[in-house]
Write a structure and sequence with these properties.
Order of helices and strands: HHHHHHHHHHH
Number of helices: 11
Number of strands: 0
Oligomer: single chain
Strand content: under 5%
């Protein structure tokens, strides 16, 4: 097996991973969270209004996804947003004021920081605020995402380098293999996950979380603030965005692979014609002798 074939195999593998990562990166964009939360976070069973849940989902997304140097300060920002929303939602005359108990209102006046107030509010009920378990889980997510992002970025760079190297070498057949096999590998993986998701989405969701988090640290009551912001439909929508992005980019790569395959055919024909011309020229020289 030649070096170009090995490069093509490596390239196809890292390309498949890169396409998957690109889909996840799109899911992490603020606009995607806002759009999906605006669609599925109805607020019907929550003490917060729909608009407040959407706003809090955006704040929580930033805490979960964006890198931050000071985790405590970042958590304080989330708590401040939750406490401000809670005061507005529980105020007399507010649309959801009837959902708030006297104990919840008193918790908002707890002395100390916004984190202290949110913790006091969560102890009344996790419907009102993110409790310690929820904040801890979001911090775990942040450490995971920010921790692997640089490594995943390096995989993307590797895919680009291999593709450029094969192109510069004019190894069109190897490049075609990489650009078409990478999406094919991705589709094979997505097909398996897609069937699993259709048969048992909850099982797939649980299995995915179990890969990265300790059991019991990522399950919350159905009416908690965290689940009200991000219900099951939200994650199904995220899965759709992830799928559409990865498959769409894979289709672009596959088209590029078809172009490379055409270039490989042209190259092969040119080499064959050149070899035949050289052979005829050689016979002509022998004839003159």
């Amino acid at each position: 097996m030649g070096s170009n074939s090995i490069l093509a195999g490596i390239g196809a593998t890292v390309l498949a991973v890169t396409l998957l990562v690109c889909g996840f990166a799109v899911c992490c964009l603020p606009g995607v969270t806002t759009s999906l939360a605006g669609t599925v976070s109805t607020g019907e069973t929550s003490p917060y209004t729909h608009d407040q849940l959407v706003e809090l989902a955006g704040v929580t997304r930033a805490f979960t996804v964006d890198p931050h140097r000071d985790a405590e300060a970042a958590a304080e920002d989330v708590a401040a947003a939750v406490v401000d929303a809670a005061r507005a939602a529980s105020a007399e005359g507010a649309p959801k004021a009837g959902e708030w108990t006297d104990a919840a209102r008193r918790a908002l006046d707890a002395p100390g920081t916004s984190l202290d107030a949110m913790d006091a509010l969560a102890k009344v009920s996790d419907r009102y605020a993110l409790d310690g378990a929820a904040v801890s889980h979001l911090e775990d997510c942040n450490r995971l995402i920010t921790g692997v992002s640089s490594w995943l970025g390096m995989i993307g760079v590797a895919a680009l380098v291999v593709g450029v190297l094969l192109g510069v070498r004019r190894q069109w057949a190897a490049l075609a293999f990489m650009l078409r096999m990478g999406p094919a590998l991705l589709l094979a993986l997505l097909a398996v996950l897609g069937v699993w998701g259709m048969v048992d989405f909850n099982g797939l969701f649980a299995a995915f979380h179990s890969l990265f988090f300790v059991d019991g640290t990522w399950t919350f009551s159905y009416d908690s603030l965290l689940i009200s912001m991000y219900p099951l439909d939200f994650w199904m929508g995220m899965g759709g965005v992830w799928l559409a992005t990865s498959v769409g980019l894979g289709a672009v790569c596959f088209i590029g692979g078809c172009v490379a395959a055409w270039r490989a055919q042209v190259q092969a024909r040119e080499l064959r014609d050149a070899a035949e011309a050289a052979a005829r020229k050689g016979k002509g020289k022998k004839g003159k002798r």
